[in-house]
Design goal:
Helix content is 37%, strand content 15%. The protein is an alpha/beta fold. The longest helix has 24 residues, at 264-287. The structure holds pyridoxal-5'-phosphate.
């Protein structure tokens, strides 16, 4: 073995394929699942009001925000832990509960931060196959071993838009050992209108090995501020509070988060907008002869496989849209190279995308 001539990172780090976020240099930005209507004006006001206070450290306990979350969702604020985006909480959970020799399990087309976080601590990411682009409880349970420390389920899942029902989630939990942590990543929960869906609160309330993660980056549209939260069993909250940075959530994020939560009307309008334009967009794109997978989030997967007129090249479609200032997300890193993921934006944006796809397919 040759002698290293520079510092060497821990095993696993150089196996990470860095997460590539959605592109941002375009006029219609539908590549990052950001809320279509932007943030509540009340959240923006709260953010601005902090301008004169940025020499102060934030409240390290995010006290007001946790109180507001507890009140809004009927949760015990003492078991809420806030983070700089739910990405930070994913990383902290993996750091706290997994390491070299351990396995972190997720489904085939699950959110890419799970394997990235696992590799960053030297743990082994393990995937379970999906059925019809949907996580399979049986396949996940079949891959649980004594080394499985965490099972991540994004519900609904990004990028597929599919979900496990509350009953299926409960069945997944029931099959796990008490020492395996089930992390239900419900980043898109606020968009969901189905009554067979649950973000997982009742499992967190009942068991010591279930965490629910949420974010302010999606329906609340505060992605730039980096704000997420987890609802945890007391033991897990205690662990997260030990490993997180003492001031991990900025004062601006905390203030904007509280204001966003108070603006219930704005959130409900955002949800209704999403439902209306997701269904409109899906129907229009199906009308163009493309496959649109059913989604309950604020995005859809458009599959170009088998498109009429031989226009079945998703990457060509993406570049065609990009040339016209429209950014959507490519999916090879998720093993879905024939698909593009399109975020549901404003009405004018969705109409433009449909018109451009029509032009692409005709050209
Ligand atoms: C399933 C899922 N979890 C977590 C995140 C991360 O969100 P945040 O901005 O809170 O870090 C995303 C963002 O795209 C996501 O899709």
């Amino acid at each position: 073995m040759s002698t290293p001539t520079a510092p060497v990172p821990r095993p696993g780090i150089l196996d990470i394929a860095p997460y590539i976020g959605g592109e941002a240099a375009g006029t219609i930005r539908l590549a990052s699942n950001e809320g279509a209507l932007g943030p509540s004006p009340k959240a923006v006001e709260a953010y601005k009001r902090l301008a004169g206070e940025i020499h102060r450290y934030p409240d390290g306990g995010s006290t007001e925000l946790r109180k507001a979350l507890g009140a809004r969702f009927g949760l015990d604020a003492g078991r809420i832990v806030c983070g700089a985006g739910s990405d930070e909480l994913i990383g902290l959970l993996v750091r706290a509960y997994a390491g070299p020799g351990d396995e972190v399990l997720y489904s085939q087309h699950g959110f890419l931060m799970y394997p990235i976080a696992a590799k960053s601590v030297g743990a082994t990411p393990v995937t379970a196959p999906e059925t019809d682009l949907t996580a399979s409880v049986d396949a996940l349970l079949a891959r649980v071993t004594p080394r499985t420390k965490i099972v991540f389920v994004a519900n609904p899942n990004n990028p597929t838009g599919t979900f496990l029902t509350a009953d299926e989630l409960a069945r997944l939990h029931a099959g796990l050992p008490a020492t395996t942590l089930l992390v239900i990543d419900a980043a898109y929960a606020e968009y969901v209108t189905r009554n067979d869906y649950s973000a997982g609160v009742e499992l967190v309330e009942k068991f010591t090995n279930v965490v629910m993660l949420r974010t302010f980056s999606k329906i609340f549209a505060l992605g730039a501020l980096r704000l997420g939260w987890g609802y945890c069993p007391a033991g897990v909250a205690d662990v997260l509070n030990r490993v997180r940075g003492p001031f991990n959530v900025s004062a601006a994020a905390q203030a904007a988060g509280v204001a966003a939560l108070e603006d219930v009307e704005f959130m409900e309008r955002s949800r209704a907008h999403n439902e209306q334009w997701r269904e409109w967009f899906s129907a229009e794109v199906r009308g163009l002869g493309l496959t649109v997978h059913p989604s309950i989030g604020n995005f859809v997967l458009v599959d170009f496989k088998g498109a009429a007129s031989g226009k079945d090249d998703a990457e060509k479609a993406r570049l065609f849209l990009k040339d016209r200032g429209i950014l959507v997300r490519q999916m090879p890193s998720y093993g879905l190279p024939t698909c593009l993921r399109v975020t549901i934006g404003r009405e004018d944006e969705m109409r433009t995308v449909v018109a451009m796809l029509k032009e692409f397919l005709a050209g």
